[in-house]
Amino acid sequence: MLKLLRPVVTRIMTPLGRALARRGISPNVVTTVGTLGTVAAALFFYPRGQLFPGTVVITIFVLADLLDGVMARMTGPGSLWGAFLDSTLDRVGDAGIFSGLLVWFMVSGQRVLAGVTLFCLVAGALVSYIKARAEGLGLKCDVGLAERPERLVVGLVSAGLGGLGVPYVLAGGLWLLAVASAVTVGQRLLHVRRQAVSAEPAPLR
Question: Looking at beta carbons, which pairs linking 114-120 to residues 24 or more positions away fall under 8 Å?
């Protein structure tokens, strides 16, 4: 669903991206500002229990992740450094969001949800690492139930609605995200294993 929505969002953001590019602002600057804003907002609002305003601010900065891609396509095929920076800062932004929630749960005495949040943080990083490592070995790894966009949507929507007082939605969203992330790790490990085994030479008789 999110992949289907990406062209629509791209068309909406294209005028803004064109305006920024004309002013000499590079996609890498947009990526960096978006990540710093995401981390700052998550660590400022979430530990205070201000989940809804924090989610709104974070969402604004997360949109920079789409904007930098739009700008990169305008200016050419993109650079290796830009692709590396974008992927690296994605992990930093995710860590900031879930770390903010983790601190809030610890401060408010919700230790079970703190553990679930920590699992989501670690599993999300593992999902991304498996793909990066597989591609570094020349294998493909584009499978999985919960990729980064899905994890962000579930996490931010759950936090935002939880901040509005909707009961059980935050806990339910985090548990759902934990299960989906674990399933995704398993899917990617099996997918890579199949490719690796088929690529190995047959043993000599």
Answer: 116/171, 116/174, 116/175, 116/178, 117/174, 119/178, 119/181, 119/182, 120/151, 120/155, 120/174, 120/177, 120/178, 120/181
